[in-house]
Amino acid sequence: MVAKCEFGVEVFSSETGQWTDSVLSSPKHIYWSTPLTNAIVYNGLLHWLTRGNEILVYDIYSNSVSHEFADLATPGL
Q1: pLDDT for residue 18
Q2: What confidence tens digit (pLDDT) does each residue in 9-64 have?
Q3: Which one, out of 11, 27, 61, 64, has a CA that is 20 to 30 A from the CA of 43?
Q4: What Pfam families has UniProt attached to this entry (predicted)?
Q5: Greatest CA span in the chain, whole angstroms?
């Protein structure tokens, strides 16, 4: 059985001018390839690249976490 992984994020709302702290939980362990601070926001979702070509996605509106497999091509290889 693989232990779940918990980590914290802070999200700033430009509408309220407030920061919100959240502790997120993933059903499987996450192996980070970059520091957690390097999230990309797209369509209201935070995205992080993990090792193993997975993208961790956090929906700030529903407070849910999902994993997506990404077949990331590497140019020039």
Answers
A1: 93
A2: 888 888 899 998 888 887 777 777 666 667 888 888 888 887 767 788 888 788 77
A3: 27
A4: b-prop_At3g26010-like (PF24750)
A5: 45
pLDDT in tens, 6-17: 878 888 888 899
- What is the pTM assigned to this prediction? 0.65
Output the six-digit token pair for 16.
């309220």
One DSSP character per residue, the chain reads -PPPEEEEEEEEETTTTEEEEEEEEESS---BSS-TT--EEETTEEEEEETTTEEEEEETTTTEEEEEE-----TT-
Can you give the length of the chain in residues? 77
CA atoms of 53 and 19, how far apart (whole Å): 30
- Single-letter amino acid, residue 52: G
